[in-house]
Description:
The protein is α+β, with helices and mostly antiparallel strands and 241 residues long. The protein has one domain: Deoxyribonuclease I, Chain A (4-Layer Sandwich). The protein is 21% helix and 41% strand. It has five helices and 14 strands. The chain has a six-stranded mixed sheet with strand order 3-4-2-1-14-13. A six-stranded mixed sheet has the order 5-6-7-8-12-9, covered by helices on one side.
Amino acid sequence: MIFSLMTYNTCFNQAVERLTKLLKIHSPDILCFQEIETTEKNLQIITNYGYTLADYSNSFIKFGKIYGLATFYNPKTIAFNNSKTIFLQKSIYEALLTLLRIFRGGNKPRTVLKTNFQHITTKKKLIVFNTHLSLHGTNSIRIKQLENVLQDAAIFKTPTIVSGDFNYSYGRKKFESLMHKYHFSEATNHITYTFEWIFLRFFSFRSKNDYVLYRNFQSGQSKKISVGFSDHFPIISRFQL
Protein backbone atom coordinates (compact mmCIF):
# COMPACT_ATOMS: atom_id res chain seq x y z
CA MET A 1 0.00 0.00 0.00
CA ILE A 2 1.39 3.42 -1.05
CA PHE A 3 0.82 6.58 0.94
CA SER A 4 2.19 10.07 0.37
CA LEU A 5 3.36 13.08 2.36
CA MET A 6 3.94 16.66 1.29
CA THR A 7 6.21 19.08 3.15
CA TYR A 8 6.11 22.79 2.31
CA ASN A 9 7.47 26.01 3.78
CA THR A 10 4.76 28.45 2.73
CA CYS A 11 6.95 31.59 3.13
CA PHE A 12 4.93 33.44 5.75
CA ASN A 13 1.70 31.90 4.49
CA GLN A 14 2.06 33.27 0.94
CA ALA A 15 1.34 29.87 -0.65
CA VAL A 16 -1.67 28.80 1.40
CA GLU A 17 -4.44 30.31 -0.74
CA ARG A 18 -2.85 28.98 -3.94
CA LEU A 19 -2.88 25.27 -3.06
CA THR A 20 -6.17 24.20 -4.65
CA LYS A 21 -4.79 22.79 -7.90
CA LEU A 22 -1.62 21.47 -6.28
CA LEU A 23 -3.49 19.37 -3.71
CA LYS A 24 -6.02 18.19 -6.26
CA ILE A 25 -3.31 16.88 -8.59
CA HIS A 26 -1.08 15.23 -6.00
CA SER A 27 -3.60 14.37 -3.24
CA PRO A 28 -1.07 13.76 -0.44
CA ASP A 29 -2.31 11.79 2.56
CA ILE A 30 -0.37 13.95 5.04
CA LEU A 31 0.58 17.65 4.84
CA CYS A 32 3.42 19.23 6.84
CA PHE A 33 3.54 23.02 6.64
CA GLN A 34 6.16 25.40 7.99
CA GLU A 35 5.85 29.19 8.31
CA ILE A 36 2.08 28.92 8.19
CA GLU A 37 -0.13 31.44 9.96
CA THR A 38 -1.74 29.55 12.83
CA THR A 39 -4.98 31.46 13.21
CA GLU A 40 -8.17 29.41 13.15
CA LYS A 41 -9.37 31.27 10.05
CA ASN A 42 -6.20 30.50 8.11
CA LEU A 43 -6.01 26.84 9.13
CA GLN A 44 -9.63 26.51 8.00
CA ILE A 45 -8.46 27.17 4.43
CA ILE A 46 -6.62 23.83 4.46
CA THR A 47 -9.56 21.98 5.98
CA ASN A 48 -11.71 23.35 3.15
CA TYR A 49 -9.53 21.31 0.80
CA GLY A 50 -10.76 18.13 2.54
CA TYR A 51 -8.02 17.77 5.15
CA THR A 52 -8.23 17.57 8.93
CA LEU A 53 -5.89 19.40 11.29
CA ALA A 54 -3.84 17.02 13.44
CA ASP A 55 -2.03 19.74 15.41
CA TYR A 56 -0.10 22.99 15.18
CA SER A 57 2.50 24.88 17.20
CA ASN A 58 3.54 28.53 17.23
CA SER A 59 7.15 29.46 16.46
CA PHE A 60 7.44 33.22 16.05
CA ILE A 61 5.65 36.49 15.39
CA LYS A 62 6.46 38.58 12.32
CA PHE A 63 4.57 41.36 10.58
CA GLY A 64 2.23 41.25 13.59
CA LYS A 65 1.13 37.69 12.79
CA ILE A 66 1.86 34.35 14.45
CA TYR A 67 3.56 31.68 12.34
CA GLY A 68 4.47 28.11 13.09
CA LEU A 69 4.02 24.48 12.10
CA ALA A 70 0.81 22.68 11.14
CA THR A 71 0.24 19.04 10.23
CA PHE A 72 -2.90 17.92 8.36
CA TYR A 73 -4.13 14.54 7.13
CA ASN A 74 -6.70 13.09 4.76
CA PRO A 75 -9.33 11.43 7.01
CA LYS A 76 -10.31 9.06 4.19
CA THR A 77 -6.91 7.36 4.27
CA ILE A 78 -5.28 8.27 7.59
CA ALA A 79 -6.48 8.15 11.20
CA PHE A 80 -5.06 10.51 13.83
CA ASN A 81 -3.98 9.02 17.16
CA ASN A 82 -2.15 11.74 19.11
CA SER A 83 0.55 14.38 18.89
CA LYS A 84 3.08 16.24 20.99
CA THR A 85 5.37 19.22 20.70
CA ILE A 86 9.14 18.85 21.05
CA PHE A 87 11.04 21.96 22.15
CA LEU A 88 14.42 22.61 20.54
CA GLN A 89 17.49 24.59 21.55
CA LYS A 90 17.85 28.09 20.13
CA SER A 91 20.90 29.31 18.28
CA ILE A 92 23.05 31.95 20.00
CA TYR A 93 21.69 34.50 17.53
CA GLU A 94 18.10 33.62 18.42
CA ALA A 95 18.93 33.71 22.14
CA LEU A 96 20.40 37.20 21.77
CA LEU A 97 17.33 38.38 19.91
CA THR A 98 15.24 37.05 22.77
CA LEU A 99 17.29 38.86 25.40
CA LEU A 100 17.34 42.13 23.46
CA ARG A 101 13.68 41.81 22.45
CA ILE A 102 14.53 43.03 18.94
CA PHE A 103 11.44 41.47 17.46
CA ARG A 104 8.10 40.51 18.90
CA GLY A 105 7.77 36.84 19.66
CA GLY A 106 11.51 36.39 20.08
CA ASN A 107 10.88 34.44 23.25
CA LYS A 108 8.80 31.81 21.46
CA PRO A 109 10.49 28.40 21.57
CA ARG A 110 11.44 26.64 18.35
CA THR A 111 9.38 23.49 18.13
CA VAL A 112 8.84 20.25 16.24
CA LEU A 113 5.46 18.56 15.86
CA LYS A 114 5.43 14.80 16.40
CA THR A 115 2.21 13.10 15.25
CA ASN A 116 1.14 9.47 15.55
CA PHE A 117 -1.07 8.23 12.73
CA GLN A 118 -2.60 4.97 11.58
CA HIS A 119 -3.16 3.99 7.97
CA ILE A 120 -6.85 3.13 7.70
CA THR A 121 -6.60 0.35 5.10
CA THR A 122 -3.56 -1.53 6.41
CA LYS A 123 -4.02 -0.60 10.10
CA LYS A 124 -0.29 0.09 10.25
CA LYS A 125 0.97 2.85 12.52
CA LEU A 126 3.37 5.60 11.46
CA ILE A 127 4.99 8.61 13.07
CA VAL A 128 5.56 11.97 11.35
CA PHE A 129 7.83 14.75 12.60
CA ASN A 130 7.10 18.18 11.12
CA THR A 131 10.34 20.12 11.48
CA HIS A 132 11.66 23.67 11.07
CA LEU A 133 15.23 24.08 12.29
CA SER A 134 16.94 27.40 13.03
CA LEU A 135 17.52 29.75 10.14
CA HIS A 136 20.02 31.95 11.98
CA GLY A 137 23.15 30.36 13.36
CA THR A 138 25.60 27.68 12.29
CA ASN A 139 25.05 24.08 11.33
CA SER A 140 26.19 23.10 14.83
CA ILE A 141 22.89 24.19 16.37
CA ARG A 142 20.92 22.58 13.55
CA ILE A 143 22.75 19.29 14.08
CA LYS A 144 21.92 19.45 17.80
CA GLN A 145 18.28 20.20 17.02
CA LEU A 146 18.05 17.40 14.49
CA GLU A 147 19.70 14.94 16.87
CA ASN A 148 17.04 15.77 19.48
CA VAL A 149 14.39 14.79 16.95
CA LEU A 150 16.14 11.62 15.74
CA GLN A 151 16.82 10.49 19.31
CA ASP A 152 13.12 10.70 20.05
CA ALA A 153 12.30 8.89 16.81
CA ALA A 154 14.81 6.10 17.48
CA ILE A 155 13.00 4.98 20.63
CA PHE A 156 10.27 3.29 18.60
CA LYS A 157 10.33 0.74 15.78
CA THR A 158 7.24 2.31 14.23
CA PRO A 159 7.80 3.49 10.61
CA THR A 160 8.87 7.12 10.95
CA ILE A 161 9.25 10.19 8.73
CA VAL A 162 11.15 13.35 9.66
CA SER A 163 10.35 16.10 7.16
CA GLY A 164 10.45 19.85 6.83
CA ASP A 165 12.72 22.86 6.45
CA PHE A 166 16.07 21.94 8.02
CA ASN A 167 17.87 25.11 6.79
CA TYR A 168 20.83 22.79 6.23
CA SER A 169 22.43 23.65 2.90
CA TYR A 170 26.07 22.64 3.43
CA GLY A 171 28.22 20.29 5.56
CA ARG A 172 26.77 17.10 4.12
CA LYS A 173 29.21 14.74 5.87
CA LYS A 174 27.99 15.52 9.41
CA PHE A 175 24.38 15.37 8.25
CA GLU A 176 24.81 11.92 6.72
CA SER A 177 26.70 10.67 9.76
CA LEU A 178 23.79 11.68 12.00
CA MET A 179 21.25 9.99 9.72
CA HIS A 180 23.20 6.75 9.71
CA LYS A 181 23.69 6.86 13.48
CA TYR A 182 19.92 6.69 13.94
CA HIS A 183 19.30 4.40 10.93
CA PHE A 184 17.47 6.92 8.76
CA SER A 185 17.56 7.14 4.97
CA GLU A 186 16.94 10.24 2.88
CA ALA A 187 14.10 10.19 0.37
CA THR A 188 15.24 13.55 -1.04
CA ASN A 189 18.90 12.68 -1.71
CA HIS A 190 18.54 13.14 -5.49
CA ILE A 191 16.97 16.63 -5.22
CA THR A 192 19.63 19.30 -5.72
CA TYR A 193 17.78 22.38 -4.44
CA THR A 194 14.49 23.16 -2.71
CA PHE A 195 14.85 26.90 -2.09
CA GLU A 196 15.22 29.71 -4.62
CA TRP A 197 15.57 33.39 -3.88
CA ILE A 198 15.25 35.55 -6.98
CA PHE A 199 16.73 39.05 -6.92
CA LEU A 200 17.21 41.79 -9.51
CA ARG A 201 14.81 39.78 -11.70
CA PHE A 202 17.63 37.96 -13.51
CA PHE A 203 19.65 36.43 -10.67
CA SER A 204 18.80 33.77 -8.14
CA PHE A 205 20.29 31.97 -5.17
CA ARG A 206 19.47 28.27 -4.79
CA SER A 207 20.05 25.89 -1.90
CA LYS A 208 18.75 22.64 -0.49
CA ASN A 209 16.92 23.42 2.75
CA ASP A 210 14.06 20.91 2.77
CA TYR A 211 14.43 17.20 3.48
CA VAL A 212 12.45 14.03 4.00
CA LEU A 213 14.08 11.31 6.11
CA TYR A 214 12.56 7.91 6.83
CA ARG A 215 13.15 4.62 8.59
CA ASN A 216 11.37 1.25 8.71
CA PHE A 217 9.65 1.76 5.37
CA GLN A 218 10.24 -0.45 2.37
CA SER A 219 11.01 2.51 0.13
CA GLY A 220 10.80 6.26 -0.16
CA GLN A 221 10.76 8.37 -3.31
CA SER A 222 10.43 12.14 -3.48
CA LYS A 223 10.09 14.85 -6.08
CA LYS A 224 10.22 18.62 -6.04
CA ILE A 225 7.13 20.31 -7.42
CA SER A 226 8.09 23.36 -9.50
CA VAL A 227 5.59 26.00 -8.46
CA GLY A 228 6.48 29.58 -7.51
CA PHE A 229 4.06 30.13 -4.65
CA SER A 230 6.86 30.43 -2.05
CA ASP A 231 10.64 30.81 -1.88
CA HIS A 232 10.62 27.06 -1.10
CA PHE A 233 9.30 24.32 -3.34
CA PRO A 234 6.83 21.73 -2.04
CA ILE A 235 8.24 18.21 -1.78
CA ILE A 236 6.02 15.17 -2.14
CA SER A 237 7.23 11.75 -0.99
CA ARG A 238 5.65 8.36 -1.52
CA PHE A 239 6.25 5.40 0.75
CA GLN A 240 5.46 1.70 0.68
CA LEU A 241 3.76 0.46 3.83
